[in-house]
Amino acid sequence: MDWSLVAVLLLMGAGGGYAAGLLGIGGGMVLVPFITMIFTANGFPPQLVVHMAIATSLATIMFTSLSSVRAHHKHGAVQWRIVALLAPGIVIGSWIGPWIGKQMNTSALSLLFAAFVAFSAAQMLRNKRPAAGRELPGAAGMFAAGGVIGTVAGLVGAGGGFISVPFMAWCNVRIHQAVATSAALGFPIALSGTLSNIYYGWAEPGLPAYSLGFVYLPALAVIVAASVMMAPFGARTAHKMDVASLKRAFAAVLFALAGYMFYHAFS
Predict the structure, then answer these.
(1) How far is CA 193 from CA 13, 95, 158, in A?
(2) pLDDT the model gives residue 194
(3) CA-CA-CA-CA torsion sign (168, 173, 179, 182)
């Protein structure tokens, strides 16, 4: 990689890490579109660009989630009981997601990514108050919810916050706690999903040098260096913002990213 590319990846990693701490989305929803742009501009095989962007993004979340959750934990906002209930389903789903993605072409995967992101943003902006008596489901329901969160997150290369945050808010978990808990869920999603992407991409023809399955290691190293440093700053900002502002910020980021991936699918 040349120095200009390193500089772009560092800047992108800083933005992704800040978003990871601020919004509890692991940074993946921010990183995938930008990594797609960079890999496309650098001549990566078109049929592998989105698959590699998703896999590389997911791998970064192993590191940003740890940095982010440490900052949220200091505020006492992480609900570890919720993490324990969702994690088993999440681990299974995150392994399945990349396998599903491998069966899809780049355009279909881009469309799926954009559709989920746009739907999540719309749900956040609706600001519909949950029923006062609604609570999180029991153990079986949480396992199933974790499976859905993990599968979709593994499929689109994100930390799952775009589903888990609205899900927890719908069940009357305070938005700041939902964001913090989502950050903690990012690690099992990223670990399982990354291993799956390595396994299913291992023998894929046409991968660039220094790829580990679908994960592009040079980009991973540079992005992680910047994102781990910035995630705690995002987490601190989140705890200073009111609920309405945090939801609007979440939705605005997601709509912008959905727009780019819709464009990429048809370009």
Answers:
(1) 19, 5, 10
(2) 95
(3) negative
